[in-house]
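Fig. S4 source data, part A: sequence.
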Amino acid sequence: MTGAASAWKSQQLIPFLEDSQISDAQVPSATDWTEIRKKALKEFNLTGARSLALPVTYDAQGQNARWERLDHDVIKELVKAIHDNGLGSPYFKKLLKATFNIYDLAPFDLRSIAPMILTDSQVLIWEAKWRRALEELRRRYQGGPNAGITVAQMAGDPPNDDPGHQARDLPQEMLTDIKEAARKAIVQIRPAGIPESICTEIKQSSSESFSPFIDRLTQAIDRQVNDEGAKPHLLRSLAFANANADCKRNISAMP
């Protein structure tokens, strides 16, 4: 307990926190993904899943978008992380962030991935949260070069649901914003069957070690607080204020 509290105090962070045109010839045919999708459905029993995502890649100048296969093993690892560790686990969140950092994904891709890693009810929650975030992006874009882009375009609603057109019509920086909004919406979903207290009410019990307490607190803050800049300060404040007496004494005694 003392060692964990000491590491947190000295570092002031938690170990598991960090933080063109497309030609038809460039787009793989749907049959390229038939066997991959079948394999994924068989391995994970994802009965409601749609086609796997086809991530966008760019050249060194950020132009000439092209499509590449997203191997089904990528989805397999995400599903396995949820199954083994839980949707709210630090491991899944890190893996999801790493995956989204590696691939440039269009709205079509995001809407294809979500049903493969989330339950039906979680997909509904995810899409609602995602659309609210897209509305915030739309307001943020007002007065700039992307002011004319609608939420429907950013979400890939029909008739804007063609992934090739999405990659061509939406600027790369906007695709990054849309993707990040989708990722944040996923990590804000409360795991099924797990009640959650308001983050300010999460307290360390007298017999609980420091790390699990911080884990619970971090997960709640991630799901309940949208302001990324406020999260570290809130975590540090609540970690001390809501720690048990022993940990609070140990933290206070440190330089």
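Fig. S4 source data, part B ends here. Residues 20 and 64 are 5 Å apart (CA to CA).
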